[in-house]
């Protein structure tokens, strides 16, 4: 278990380290920082290396970058990391819960407080283990459309296969018939050659998803396609659900490489 403790006061780090160690034992990978910016750099580096922190215990009142700002930054670069706020101030509780933290502990946090926090993690550790974790497609729609499985980009053999997936995700699970897809991808050119090319793209997309272990994302019917939204972690879907972090991530651009996407989003906001 990989744990990070962030507090600008060494006394706070020492006290929480003692409580965490008492609650979890000695066999943990524990890191501590008094500088929140250095802590964020460690979180970013760990996420890029494919070894993200399981839990971050963090203070709120810190100079340079407060705990709420740090939480937003961690959510962006390491979305599966659990956040636990540890502070002497109750007035930040509402803001913390809006960030979907796992728990909010008042100082001094005891070993029992830490154990209770572990029982209420938003990302249970046993589900995050490589042996049991369900693979999910991670999709970024804000800015350029990008697709990942875990931390690795999904490989598309054809660029139009990626655009096909983008449109299906934009439709949020709605069933799309082949005529509709021809209209989007080939500007209503329904010639036999385009129909054959579309079938090739569907097969290519199916193979790419299956090779990455997420083949259940695509739902193929007779003359139709859709996606299983429950298998997709998507910033656009989170925005539609009212997630404040997704709202912060949206800067006005949506699937910027596709001309049809601007009109699509504009019709919903």
What does this structure look like?
The strands form three sheets. A five-stranded parallel β-sheet has the order 2-1-3-4-5. It has a four-stranded mixed β-sheet with strand order 8-7-6-12. A three-stranded antiparallel β-sheet has the order 9-11-10. The two termini are 41 Å apart. Strand 10 and strand 11 (224-227) form a beta hairpin. It is of the alpha/beta class and 269 residues long. The chain has two domains: 2-128, Rossmann fold (3-Layer(aba) Sandwich); 137-266, Arc Repressor Mutant, subunit A (Orthogonal Bundle), CATH 1.10.10. The chain is elongated, with a radius of gyration of 22 Å. The chain has twelve helices and twelve strands. It has helices spanning 10-24, 36-48, 67-77, 93-98, 111-118, 125-128, 159-170, 178-186, 192-211, 235-240, 244-249, 259-266; strands at residues 2-6, 29-33, 55-58, 82-87, 103-106, 137-140, 146-149, 152-153, 176-177, 218-221, 224-227, 232-234.
């Amino acid at each position: 278990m990989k744990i990070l403790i962030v507090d600008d006061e060494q006394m706070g780090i020492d006290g929480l380290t003692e409580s965490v160690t008492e609650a979890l034992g000695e066999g943990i990978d524990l890191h501590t920082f008094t500088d929140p910016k250095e802590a964020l750099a460690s979180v970013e580096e760990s996420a890029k290396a494919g070894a993200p922190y399981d839990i971050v215990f963090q203070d709120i009142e810190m100079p340079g970058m407060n705990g709420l700002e740090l939480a937003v930054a961690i959510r962006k670069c390491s979305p599966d990391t659990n956040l636990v706020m540890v502070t002497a101030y109750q007035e930040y509780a509402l803001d913390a819960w809006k960030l979907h933290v796992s728990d909010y502990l008042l100082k001094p946090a005891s070993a029992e407080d830490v154990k209770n926090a572990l029982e209420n993690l938003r990302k249970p550790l046993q589900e995050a283990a490589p042996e049991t974790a369900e693979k999910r497609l991670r999709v970024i729609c804000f800015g350029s459309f990008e697709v990942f499985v875990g931390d690795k980009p999904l490989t598309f053999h054809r660029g139009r296969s990626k655009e096909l997936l983008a449109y299906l995700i934009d439709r949020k699970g709605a069933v799309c018939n082949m005529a509709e897809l021809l209209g989007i991808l080939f500007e209503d050119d329904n010639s036999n050659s385009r129909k054959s090319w579309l079938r090739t793209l569907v097969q290519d997309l199916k193979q790419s998803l299956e090779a990455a272990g997420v083949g259940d994302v695509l739902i193929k019917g007779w003359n139709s396609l859709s996606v299983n939204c429950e298998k997709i972690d998507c910033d656009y879907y989170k925005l539609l659900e009212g997630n404040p972090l997704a709202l912060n991530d949206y800067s006005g651009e949506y699937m910027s490489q596709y001309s049809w996407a601007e009109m699509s989003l504009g019709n919903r906001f």
